[in-house]
Amino acid sequence: MLKKRHVPDQPTHGYLTKAVRSCYSNLSNAKSDSQEINKACKLAKRCYEKLERGDFEDGTSSKKFRSSGGGRKSRAPEVRDALFQWFIDVRTSLKARLPKSLFVLKAKEYYKDWLQQHPGTPEEEKLQFSNQWIKGWEQEYGISLRKPNKRYYISKENCIVRVQVYLKNIWSLRYYFIKTFGVDPPIINGDQMPLHRNESSEQATLSFKNKEVFVKENHHLSRERVTVFTQIATDGVANLHSEFVFKGTGKRPPKLTTPPNIHYQWSPKGSYRLKQLLQTIKHLRNRFNIFSYANFAIYVLDDYAVHLMPEVRKALWSRGYILVIIGGGITGFMQVNDTHLHKQLKSEYRKKESALMLEKLSKDPNKVPSPNRSEMMSLLVDSEKAITIDANAAFKSNWVTNSLDGTEDIFVSDKIFGLVGDSMREFRNKLTAKPPPKTLKEVIGALIPPKGIKRGKNTEGAELFDGEEIAEEEEEEAEEEEEIDADQLFEALTGEISIELVTEKDTQACNAVVGNSVSLVGIAKSENINKDAEFLDEIKKVLDKYETSEQFITARNQIENTYKAARASLKKRIREEKQ
Q1: Residues 229, 343: one domain?
Q2: 238 pLDDT tier (thresholds 50, 70, 90)
Q3: Which of 206, 402, 514, 558 has its CA 20 to 30 A from that of 234?
Q4: Is residue 500 predicted with pLDDT exceeding 50?
Q5: Same structural domain for residues 283 and 423?
Q6: Exposed (0-12), middle (13-18) or buried (19+): which is 345, by Cβ within 10 Å?
């Protein structure tokens, strides 16, 4: 007698697996224990159970989904629109600070007028302008609460003039060296970067919600200033090292342990004065040659009182460096130290300092941790090794070392090109169309003196960032530049005989300009890159051609930000292809 085969009431996993594989071709080769098969089998089993209970309806679902535009409507929509219009007026025309408290006051004012027009509004339906309401309004109109991250110290007109002066001085020196000696002179940027003994004190820390946040650290050290003098060069082989200035005036300052090739000094305020800067200059590689200027380099400093002293210019010359000053108010987007180095360096330093403080606290929980000065130097050296800076790309982004034939204008940042693109191209055409000066004395004499910030007391140690007795320089358009005696300036630097030179003409091959930026079409050999470049050019033309209403500002900003990010990505691809 044959025994009946037992048939289970519920489908087995193997049966469900076969059913899933036969119905879904994309799962036909998936393993039985894979996550995708398990999910599909669970779904099939639930459908089978619903079918057995009679709950399963073919092609329909008992669950209701909210249709597009459905849901509870916003109350008093006229108030929301009026607030957005008021916000546009404040931000676009007045550029005023707009805190949340002022926004709520304005919202209540508009709502009060709205209630007068709708007297029958029940008390329970009146708006309370809670944080949830404000957040919903921000999401609806694409607005966020942000800290100001863009400030101007000078007018746009003065900014353009100072950028032009800086670039003209750099290009004039480069053109002389290229035509005379056949070399593009190295350019070194030096700048002070302030640090503190407890630099990570302003960083947020993980903690429990609704609890007071206590951190065991030496808070008063967060106000002890330490200055790091950073240097970055175009040639990448200058072997430059950061130097430190610590706060101290004692006759017997403590002896510190320094990493290799690192120097430190002491100063009353912990910042550079003439004595400290002259000592730093002595540590530079000596490029001076009495018979030729071919090995000279250009040294760039910002408009700081000490940098303007004649002793600094003479000291740099004696080591084989020609000083060029960046005018005040433009270093934030023109000096490589500020645009490409300091942010990364400080961020990495704070991470390493926080790790060191945690390690110290773990070893001795009863002692308040703080980094000593020797540890600060070691942390910064380790931070410099941990970050990667493409110096060549950084200088080209600031339009400093780009080829004078115009073929590398595509690497200039859109901000700088938008400010001075047309005027600097015109200057470059005039510069390269004629022979350069015959002597270095003539070149130095033709350099344009930069304009900066007037100080109440133009003395050493009067830093711009101290904010003491600083007055904005008032420039008139008709003001004439001070004349400088070229013979006097050159003899102040050196009494050597000027060197004659032989010149030859160069050709210009500039890229097309779309709006206020250089077109990237045709720069690379890759067909895909050129397709993307043409696409970006068309987007730029649309943005320049059409204006939008105030209500469309948020959407336009999103398109512009996407365009900027795509253009930066495309520049990177072009640079990688050329390398």
Answers
A1: yes
A2: low
A3: 514
A4: no
A5: yes
A6: buried
pLDDT at 332 over 80: yes
Where among 438, 461, 493 does a domain terminate?
493
Could you read off the pLDDT of 80-112 as tens digits, one per residue? 988 988 888 887 777 777 888 888 999 999 999
Domain boundary among 463, 493, 523: 493
507 in any annotated domain: no
This prediction's pTM: 0.71
Average pLDDT rounded to a whole number, residues 408-419 = 92
| First and final C-alpha spacing in the chain | 84
Q: Which residues have C-beta within 8 Å of that of residue 73, sequence separation ≥ 6?
A: none
Q: What is the pLDDT of residues 276-331, one digit of tens each?
A: 999 999 999 999 998 899 999 999 999 998 999 999 999 999 999 999 999 988 99
Which residues fall within 8 angstroms of residue 197, CB to CB, at 6 or more apart? Answer: 218, 221, 222, 224, 226, 370, 371, 373, 376
Rounded to an integer, what distance in angstroms lies between the CA atom of residue 446 and that of residue 444?
A: 5
- The verdict on residue 7 lying in a domain is no
Question: What's the rounded Cα separation, in Å, for the pair 287 and 318?
Answer: 9
- For residue 86, what are the domain limits? 77-141
Strands 470-471 and 225-233: unpaired
Within-domain flag for 149: no
Report how far residue 411's alpha carbon sits from residue 422's, in angstroms, rounded to the nearest whole number: 15
So what's the pLDDT on residue 30? 80
Mapped onto helix, strand or coil, the DSSP state of residue 577 is helix
Residue 326 phi, psi dihedral angles, 5° rounding: -85, 130
